[in-house]
Amino acid sequence: MAGFFDTSVAYLKGIGPQRATLLNKELKIFSFADLIQHYPFRYEDRTKFYKISEFNDELQYVQTKGFIKRMELVGSGFKKRLVAVFKDDSGELELVWFQGISWVNAKIKPGVEYIIFGRLSRFGSRYTIAHPEIEIFNESQNKTAFLQPVYSLTEKLRSRHLDSKALTKVIQDLLVQAKGRIRETLPQSILSQEKFISKQEAVFNVHFPVSHDILLRAQQRLKFEELFYIQLRLFKMKLIRQEKARGQIFHDVSLLTQFYHEHLPFELTNAQKKVIKEIYADLKSGRQMNRLLQGDVGSGKTIVAYICMLIAISGNAQCTLMAPTEILAQQHYANLKRYADKMQIPIALLTGSTKKSQRKLIHERLQSGEIKILTGTHALLEEEVKFLNLGLSIVDEQHRFGVAQRAKLWQKNANYFPHVLVMTATPIPRTLAMTLYGDLDISVIDQLPAGRKAIKTIHKFDAHRLQINQFLKDQIVSGRQVYIVYPLIEESEKLDLKHLMDGYESIQRAFPNYPISILHGKMKPAAKKYEMNRFATGETKIMVATTVIEVGVDVPNASVMVIENAERFGLSQLHQLRGRVGRGADQSYCILMTDYKLSADSKIRIGTMVKTNNGFEIAETDLSIRGPGDLMGTQQSGVLDLLIADLGKDGDILQKARASAVRILEDDPELQKEENAVVRIQIAAMRKTAVNWSRIS
Ligand code: ADP
Ligand code: MG
Questions:
Q1: What is the per-residue pLDDT across 543-563, written as a single tens digit (0 to 9) for each?
Q2: What CA–CA distances, in Å, run from 456 to 305, 426, 450, 461, 590?
Q3: Helix (H), strand (E) counts: the chain
Q4: The domain at 456-612 falls in which architecture?
Q5: Is the backbone of residue 375 left (phi > 0), alpha (psi -120 to 50) or beta?
Q6: Which CATH architecture has domain 48-145?
């Protein structure tokens, strides 16, 4: 049904073919429907005029009215600017123009009452607005005031005169034409239950709200709808898989029992036991397992993985454990091998740097079924890697792998899909997990092994350097080891690498008697392995590194993590790094070094780290300050590319949307009931336009 909403935006007055091409490129807006779904990202309240005395730092944008008191040109060359003092009866404000000076100069007249609108900033005690919107005030304007939409646009579009104002006009015209054509997209049952306004009313009011109240209702309804269709999709995928994807049945626990009786190195935590039970229930169910295992750093996921492998191996199957980095894969290999060797279970390691001859041998031993456990990096996804009977695939640190890679695992067994367990040490807030992994079952290890002392986290400045070095010395003298981590981000890689090397040198000067390791991403794998090994065996006492050590490296004897320029790290990254210590029985420390000057967000991050060790609490805070798009590992996932909902803020709506999706599909899995026709039609429409739908498929 190529209808009204499929029409290209090129046909709109004020757009035309050239701007349409630009809209396609810059914002992926093609059709009328796309444009209507380009919802404002904020609104300007033009119902309120602030008195200058009412200005405060919380206000971002203000509208005020008054008179220009005087104007003068200041500076010269590219610093030349026009500065005006603007006053009302309560105080004064500064207006500044850097461009278009002569135009402003000519336009503005003394003695005329103006409306000023713009972004407020403060220098000392004086408020300033740069490049304000300025209009002559007249009474009629005052009466027709309303909330104005502000649309996200790019510089390119603005340079072609498609700014927020211009787009507002275009959308306004489009909505006039669309009136009466906007279909309802939610079933009546949901509309009544949630007391939602209609789709049409919501669309009109999200662009041009007539009151704050109706705007809120419009947003709620549209957010719900967006999340509802995602959840519907995810839950449907889960249902289909549960129905269709048979899994090998593993119920024999003889190896597991042997391990428990003869080799278990420590008492498992209750959380570990609970999770193993959940996984065992999946493995013997006859359905393919697709489970996410969340557990904070140090919660003991490795042994859980091993125990689950034993269940599969007892059932004559093979297992893989895939890690995101070579170092981590090696470490997993070493850890698992300790257990596996005791039980004569053949295990191998396959990474990008495995030699060709060795690789060939591993391939053969996998195909013959001899190797039971294969650890490695994504190298084990390669086509030549074939198994006699792959039964269980475990993926560690999922956020570095894409969904597509997960799917590749599925193809490795022609008869059954292997059971899949995804382990992540990045605690994901519930709202996010429900969306990112809504098609998976979720298990959580929410407990650390007993006897582990909480890590003490301390915030320090450069001025404390000597004191800290002394503290590090004391730790080393008492037999402990120390990490010192430097930021390294791609954009400033060269400079960061220099900081790392400078840091390394000054540490060498401060600790002349101790051997020191260095580790960064630019080193060859062999060199990395060598340094890691020297540190792991205790030969070196200090490890100077970039965040390459962030994932999974396990040296229980390390008791101090110093993070340089801690303000430059994200919260989840800080938490991951901190998790490298506190793995032994000793008291461990995390020292966050920062500049004195910190942004508001940095303060929250550092403060949160000092305050809590709880990964889930940290993840929630991270989500609320950064928004989901920036959360570690979620970037590539298009799921979070939402039109209006915000997973950081809309947790409640998401819960409701999920509940509704589940209720509807459980009652009517094929959506055949008349009352769900709306849903069926909407899914078909979404498939066709492929906006939302393809992102999550
Ligand atoms: P992570 O969940 O971060 O992968 P690991 O599996 O690496 O954690 O476990 C961290 C450390 O805790 C390892 O040294 C491991 O041997 C140890 N460990 C795991 N479970 C327990 C337990 N129940 N009791 C004591 N130590 C444990
Ligand atoms: Mg781990």
A1: 999 877 655 567 889 999 999
A2: 29, 20, 17, 17, 6
A3: 25, 21
A4: 3-Layer(aba) Sandwich (3.40)
A5: beta
A6: Beta Barrel (2.40)
Contacts 24+ apart (CB under 8 A), 15-18: 15/162, 15/170, 18/160
The span from the CA of 607 to the CA of 575, in Å, is 12
Average pLDDT estimate for 254-264: 96
Of all residues in the chain, what percent carry a pLDDT higher than 70?
92
Q: At which residue do the structure tokens 């500064």 appear?
A: 94
Q: How far apart are the first and last CA of the chain?
A: 23
12: closest CA among 170, 168, 178? 170
Parallel/antiparallel/unpaired status of strands 373-376 and 318-322: parallel
Pocket of ligand 1 (CB under 6 A): 266-269, 272, 295, 297-303, 425, 449, 554, 556, 583
Architecture per CATH, 254-280+300-424 = 3-Layer(aba) Sandwich (3.40)
**Cα of 332 from ligand 2 centre, angstroms:** 8
* Residue 301 CA to ligand 1 centre (angstroms): 7
The rounded Cα 680 to chain-centroid distance in angstroms is 31
Has residue 302 got a pLDDT over 60? yes
Does residue 246 carry a pLDDT above 90? no
Helix (H) or strand (E) holding 419: strand 419-424
Residue closest by Cα to atom 9 of ligand 1: 300
| Whole-prediction pTM | 0.67
Q: How confident is the model at residue 140 (pLDDT cuts 50, 70, 90)?
A: low
Mean pLDDT of 21-44: 91
**More confident call, 323 vs 687:** 323
Ligand nearest to the CA of 329: 2
pLDDT class of 256 with cuts at 50, 70, 90: very high
